Amino acid sequence: MGLTLTEKILKEHLVSGELKAGNEIGIKIDQTLTQDATGTMVYLQFESMDISRIKTELSVSYVDHNTLQTDYRNMDDHRFLQSAAAKFGLHFSRPGNGICHQIHLERFGVPGKTLLGSDSHTPTGGGLGMISIGAGGLDVAAAMAGAPFYLKSPEVIGVHLTGSLQPMCSAKDIILTVLQLETVKGGVGRVYEYYGEGVKSLSVPERATITNMGAELGATTSVFPSDDETKAFLRLQKREELWKELSADNDAEYCKVIEINLDEVVPMVALPHMPDNVKKVSEIAGLPVNQVAIGSCTNSSINDLGIAADILDGKTIAENLSLGISPGSRQVINSGIEAGIIKKLVSSGARILESACGACIGMGFSPTSGGVTVRTFNRNFKGRSGTADAEVYLVSPETAAATALTGVITDPRDFASISRKDYTSFIEIDDNMIIKPLGETDAAEVQIVRGPNIKPCPKADAMYEKLEAPVLLKTGDNITTDHIMPAGAKILPLRSNIPEISKHVFEALAPEFHDKAKKAGNGVIVGGENYGQGSSREHAALAPMYLGVKAVITKSFARIHKANLINFGIIPFTFADTADYDLISEGDVIVIDNLREGVQKTRTLKAVNKSNGKEFNIEHDMADRQLEIILEGGLLNYTKSRS
Ligand code: MIC
Ligand code: SF4
């Protein structure tokens, strides 16, 4: 039987385990990326591993999230990251250079390689034919130290593309269509592999839009073949020598195949407050809009901005709204200036924001109270825009631009019929904002710069013999890491300071959480399905651990968050019978008598709700390696005790 492309790349990087869906495998990681909001913890953790230099082929530290700099803290983090990169042998992408995923695609991604990133949208690299996976920071630190990355061997879903996109329809509409079919938890434990005739009609940045937002499926990653389009993209980036052809075997078997005829794809929109709450744009056309934002790591290539500019050309945006543009990289800005795209955008009334995450993560450009904002981004979780009661709609650049002109949600096909032009000939390569790694001797002299807001990463306790702890919070389904550990302009500057950031855990959902946890000294969280979806931020495990959370019991978990919980010594249990979720209320005391012995001996443990006397079974599916990690109180303790 032939192999899928995913299997081929995984096989080539396999270090341990058997490539059989569900088994734990270890893979060699060729490249890593971090961004500043997760990066400070990564390098603090790497530093505590006492390894002088990274062991990967290439690692890049980007600054793109915390660039608002309302006080000293963000820039202190940037300086820490720059000095850590110099010390440990990384490339450093300076603030202003752009968003990590866009730059990595342009300047560093290589077909057939593995990339691990401390950001959930690392799968953007799948557009180039890489296996690119998002993970918690500690896993990325371990990979930089030369350790394999461990994951459940995924099932591979085939997405068979035929036909080609019609004018005013775009790659964003393809991934929104997939999200409508598969939902935000449909991809857990799976890789989405795109293939078929339709692939040829999509450029690498269009493919990257699809693999980027594949993160919203909960998928391990998404991947495209490496073909002539990939070669052309690498040629433009003056990196053609790194190209190689890659595809699945003709007789490869997928666990399921999704058929998409691109001729039939129409403009789609994700409604508040989930990326899978998808409808056709035509179904909600006419809804008044207060704000439009174009850009982010999902849709900010030169041709994305180009089509928006061509739609807006010579016109003025509607009076009732404001339009913001966040270009993906300096390369995009510069080529946009050369191509006249930026002039068209500015003339239409657009506000050019920094080439950074910005509005996508509530770092500025927050919408009006109760406002409707239409964005080309990838997440529309409640409150993420920085305005608690805003309604965020996710669309393509075509729909966003047409909407900006009419002031109401508009099907771009009703507005005009403009085909995407190819502006890539305006691209010029300039890496002067990427600082190259120092040689070993010079690196040894570097002193790491640490501002007063940078505090050490706390460690968890080894696992207790018995657990007796109150339920600090009971949540519903699809809780995101934005709910657990919010971002935004106020909280993001605290990412290097766990004692301070922990004051904001569950702030919007349960403002009393921090005080309650502190008072109780230990605790349990009870959750529904797909608990911890979204961002890879390990702070969503680290800060609850700091507050004494010992276990999370849910109906099911999202992949990255579950791994983060284990890395920080919190046990992820699921209900053996999901109906038992109803037996528990907030404030009840849960007792697990033989916790330490139990998790080692069996996958199913008995728990008692001391408050109502009811017994129920809970399960774990930790691999042996993960069990050892959890018994020792997390990956840092585990790594230390073995070095
Ligand atoms: C996001 O899009 O949610 C983020 C902000 O990029 C996060 C990383 C973080 O929280 O720092 C992600 O996607 O992992
Ligand atoms: Fe940045 Fe938004 Fe992309 Fe996350 S999703 S990396 S916040 S642009």
UniProtKB/TrEMBL annotation:
Domain of life: Bacteria
Domain Aconitase A/isopropylmalate dehydratase small subunit swivel: 520-577
Keywords: Iron, Iron-sulfur, Lyase, Metal-binding
Cofactor(s) needed by this chain: [4Fe-4S] cluster
InterPro entries membership: Acnase/IPM_dHydase_lsu_aba_1/3, Acoase/IPM_deHydtase_lsu_aba, Aconitase/3IPM_dehydase_swvl, Aconitase/IPM_isomerase, Aconitase_4Fe-4S_BS, Aconitase_4Fe-4S_dom, Aconitase_put, AconitaseA/IPMdHydase_ssu_swvl
Iron keyword on record: yes
One GO location term (cellular component): cytosol
Keyword Iron: yes
A Pfam family this chain is assigned to: Aconitase_C
Name of the protein in its database record: Aconitate hydratase A
